[in-house]
Design a protein that fits this description.
2% strand, Cytochrome Bc1 Complex, Chain D, domain 2, globular, binds heme C, mainly alpha
Length: 337
């Protein structure tokens, strides 16, 4: 059954005398074998966009190519830098027309995320990739112009054909599919923590103390930053502001109590993704720990999981242990430029 369409085409070409058309060559992209780390949930990959070597490679090229921006100066990779776990070391990133209003998010383990952006306004990686191109600050381009540029490009038409078949029109749909395929391959789980879990590497006593603080009521981080992804992929207000300047999730839901709720970031690779929070307000992990220890605001917007304890009252040694544990979540191999 698999060969029916091709057989029909060949028959058609023989009997029809339709000299102008050559039969389309069979399209056989190579499936991409994705390694799912031990202990991770099984990922969901959309049936209409399976991973292929050709698709992932095309996506990687598009991700790093400023051709997607209006003046060919900004690529996805301009704001999502490999050496920062695909985040940006600058508080706000520079687009074609000024600075973004939020901190660029790191990109890894996204195939376990059900929604995207700090406020979750996008429900798939395919949908997400449409937006930066059109965003007037970020890339300022429209997809019909991108399509024209890709179509007359010396190599992209061949790469699109190899990834998706020569009969499919080059354009937004296939471009975002390829980018999403590339992003789904960004899996990061090669850390000291993972090796400790597997029993192949030891924690120092300080890292172990930090692990225990993190995973017990004492520092109580684990309710939101849930292993193995170190995010619950939910939205919380962690008490950054009494009156949040950025509505966060409330922009989508219009729920008053959703003000200041943001997507819980993964703490994997946290050593590489400073500055921290949706607005990049904290430069260091010390500042972040101090926020949770004594600096956060208590209001009717603050998440109940933040309010259940009176304040962490961690001493200097405990704060240092917590940071040591957080650094066991770094994946240096993933972060190599
Ligand atoms: C000018 C900088 C800039 C450019 C260019 C840019 N991004 Fe982003 N990206 C951001 C910022 C800032 C956010 C968070 C925005 C928000 O929440 O409103 C973000 C968020 C994301 C997210 C959400 C991650 C998550 O965990 O929810 C993904 C995925 C992403 N970008 C992929 C891309 C892709 C693909 C491109 C190219 C087509 C791109 N970005 C171009 C700055 C940029
Ligand atoms: C109620 C849920 C919740 C709890 C409990 C919690 N966090 Fe968070 N954490 C979040 C959310 C949500 C954000 C993003 C907030 C924002 O940007 O506005 C965040 C952000 C962070 C960041 C910055 C990440 C980045 O990429 O910018 C770090 C680091 C962090 N948390 C560590 C911790 C530690 C350590 C603890 C325990 C002491 C903890 N969190 C407890 C929900 C929580």
């Amino acid at each position: 059954m698999k060969y029916w369409p091709l057989t029909l085409l060949l028959l058609g070409a023989c009997s029809g005398g339709d000299k102008g058309t050559t039969p389309a060559s069979p399209h056989n992209p190579t499936p991409y074998a994705l390694d799912v780390p031990a202990g991770f949930p099984l990922p969901e990959i959309p049936a209409n966009n399976p991973l292929t070597i050709e698709g992932v490679e095309l996506g990687r090229l598009l991700f790093t190519d400023p051709i997607l921006s209006v003046d060919s100066t900004v690529a996805c990779a301009s704001c999502h830098l490999r050496e920062s776990a695909f985040a940006d070391a600058r508080r706000f990133s520079k687009g074609v027309n000024g600075l973004t209003s939020r901190n660029s998010m790191p990109l890894f383990n996204l195939l376990w995320s059900p929604s995207f952006f700090w406020d979750g306004r996008s429900a798939s990686l395919e949908d997400q990739a449409i937006h930066p191109v059109q965003n007037p600050i970020e890339m300022g381009e429209d997809w019909s112009t991108v399509t024209a540029k890709l179509t007359r490009h010396p190599t992209y038409p061949r790469l699109f054909a190899q990834a998706f078949g020569a009969d499919k029109p080059i354009g937004q749909k296939l471009a975002v599919q390829a980018i999403a395929q590339f992003e789904r391959t960004l899996v990061s789980a090669d850390t000291k923590y993972d090796r400790w879990l597997a029993g192949t590497e030891e924690f120092t006593p300080e890292e172990e103390r930090g692990f225990l603080l993190f995973h017990t009521e004492q520092a109580d981080c684990f309710h939101c930053h849930v292993a193995p992804l170190f995010t619950d992929n939910q939205f919380h207000n962690n008490g950054l502001d009494l009156d949040p300047a950025d509505p966060g999730l409330a922009r989508q839901t219009e729920g008053r109590l959703d003000r200041g709720k943001f997507k819980t970031p993964s703490l994997r690779n946290i050593e590489y993704t400073a500055p921290y929070m949706h607005d990049g307000r904290f430069q260091t992990l010390q500042e972040v720990i101090e926020h949770y220890n004594s600096g956060f605001h208590r209001s009717n917007l603050t998440d109940p999981l933040m309010l259940i304890r009176p304040g962490l009252n961690l001493n200097i040694k405990e704060k240092q242990s917590l940071i040591s544990f957080l650094k066991t979540l770094s994946d240096p191999q993933f972060n190599k430029p």
